Structure formats: C-alpha cells, structure tokens
Amino acid sequence: MNGPAAAAVEVSGLTKRFGAVTAVDDLSFSVGAGEIFGLVGPDGAGKTTAMRMFASVMRPDAGSIVIDGIDVLAHPEQTKRHVSYMPQRFGLYEDLTVEENIRFYADLFEVPRKLWETRAESMLAASDMTQFRKRLAGQLSGGMKQKLGLTCSLVHTPRVLLLDEPTTGVDPLSRREFWQILYSLRAEGVAMLISTAYLDEAERCDRLALLHRGTMMYCDTPAKLKARMPGAMLEIAAPAPRKVREVVQPLPGVQGVLLVGNGAHVHVDDAGRRTPQLAQALAAAGVEATRIAEVAPTIEDLFVALLDQNAED
Length: 313
Description:
Radius of gyration: 22 Å
Number of strands: 14
Helix content: 25-40%
Strand content: 25-35%
Structural class: alpha/beta
Largest sheet: 6 strands, mixed
Order of helices and strands: EEEHEEEHHHEHEHEEHEHEEHEH
CATH topology of the largest domain: Rossmann fold
Strand order of the largest sheet: 6-7-8-3-9-10
C-alpha cells in the first residue's frame, strides 16, 4: 500500500458490488495523520460508495478498514468518536439557528458545553460566520450551509474527517474559506479523506487516488502524478477555443484537446515538433491564436489523458 507507515486510515482490498456492477473494486491505500487525501473521479467512479463504507454506513463485500487502530467493520460503534462523516447532503435542521445546530451535534457526542462553545467560536470565526450564529440554517446560502455542516462535523474533535464532495455547488469564495479551514485542521494532525469531482480542487490535496469505474488507476502526490503525463501539454490562447479544437483535434500527434478558460490545452506527443504544425494549421483555417506555448499539465489534463489511454488499451 501507498502512504505513510504510521497510518490514521488503512484501507485494504475494499470491494462493493450492486448486483452485476462493481462500484468499488479492490481499493487499497493509507492516510497519515495531518494528511489531506483526495478521491478524485467523475460521477460513477465509486467515490460516494467508498466514503459510505469508510463511515460504516455501508458494509463492503470484501476488504478491511482500520481507522485510528480500530477495525471499522468489527467495531463500527467504537469508531464514531474518532471519525466524522460529512455526506453530500449534511443533515442540518433548517428550523434551528446556526448555534442551535452546533449545540445539537455537540449534545449527540456528549461534548461539554465550554468545550463545544470554544470550538464553535473558533470555527465560526475561521469561516466568517460569527455574525450569522442566530440565523436559521434554512436561511443560509449553500456555501454557508456547507461551512456550518463542517463546523458541526468537527464539534467533537475527530481524528479522521470524511468529506464527500463538500464543495459541490458552493461559490468560489466559500470554497476558498472551506479549504482554509481544512488546512488549519491538517496543522492539528487531523487526517482527511475528501472526494471531489473538481479536478482543480484536487491539486490542493497532499495525495490523490484517481478513480475510474470503481478502480484506482493511480495514487500519488499531485506533482508526481503530473510527472506521469506522457508527451507534452500545449496551451493555445484564442478568442474562439471551440474552433481551435475543431482544427487541431484531427492533426497528427494530437492525443486530446481540453477547453480551458479562454483557450485550449492540447495534449501532443512532442511539443517542439507539433507547435509549428498547430500554428500553421490554425493560420490556414483562419482561426486566430494569440499564443501557443508548452505548459505544465493540470490534474484535469492528466485524468483526461489517462482515460483516453485506457480507452485505447
């Protein structure tokens, strides 16, 4: 297994089937204390199913999960004080205020009043929500609800935090504040497993497991994963990126094209050889390109390239 020797989470051979469909297939990895570990993949990759098994909400068909030295499958109740699970739809009570929701979850875990009040004050300040503590949860924005959900999840100071696509549908500012809280938790030694379909967000994790149809394709740091990228990545800045894609997609040596902002990332076999060819083809087609340059690949570039490679294989 990949990962640190002193693991807060150890997953080995985890498998879950639904009839003829294998949602999670022989998943193995470990997560160290103070590490942010990302499960990355498109819808249907098995991320939520895996998270539910880690949280002992769902039992696997095979494999083992050990969290903070406790066998989750053998002692699911014993792990609850060590783990906090924040699903995609966290169970906030919309007719309670922010503060009342926090108190409810603190009472569930029998956290002493002074302790949870101190913890909540710190978390609300970090998420810029102190002024909303008397507001009903049902009147919060989507991003604020997610930050409240995280605060409730952390009120009993778990050693392992499970976050299932926590920033889906959240505005960019709230996403940034959410991640700032995660970084502070990392400094406290909390191990975090976070699933996400935002591949730009995956760059923030310490290590990543790239999942596709329930199978882990690769597991490593973002930098080492990107070093696996075959060929090279060219960035073409252009006013009409879709036209760029139409022109360059069928050219020799082009292995994939991904629209990114005001341009396109073009995966080629050889940057030096293909750059002048792409420029010539675009000029001949009357498509303006303000810049063509080799750039470092993103996790999204890598994931798309790996999927294309697997499809060919």
